Amino acid sequence: MSTPGIIRAATAILAGAMLSGCELYQFTVEEFAGIDEISLTIKGTKTFVYSPERHQIGFNPDKYEFRVSDDNMADYFFLDCDDMPVRTDQVLTGDLEYTTPDDIKSRHGLDLRVTDVRNGKIWLWNQKYRIGIVVATLPEE
Fold first, then answer.
1. Structural domain tally of the chain?
2. Mean pLDDT over each residue of the chain, to the nearest integer
């Protein structure tokens, strides 16, 4: 094999290895089911975790809005749904806005599936972006 052929073959092998290893870990709905706290988890990274000492919970049942934030609104996530999530396997659409350490991000028109409803909390899962959201209808004590 000539030098250019070897270089092409090595490049193809490296590119294949890089592509296959780009996303070794996939956050799953089964892992999401193990999360109990009010939170926003994206691809396995807990982007926001509610703490009753530092955060507030807002819920508007008429508009199907869930809000979790700190006092100065520097750290938050908001979820607006097109319907009230009330039963397991219900599918609805939602708009999500959340903060990161250096930005405000949003996802509109997320397909969300209710994976659990218990103890005043609702678990919502988006398969496409691997987003898990746990919200509350009542503030935790």
1. 1
2. 87
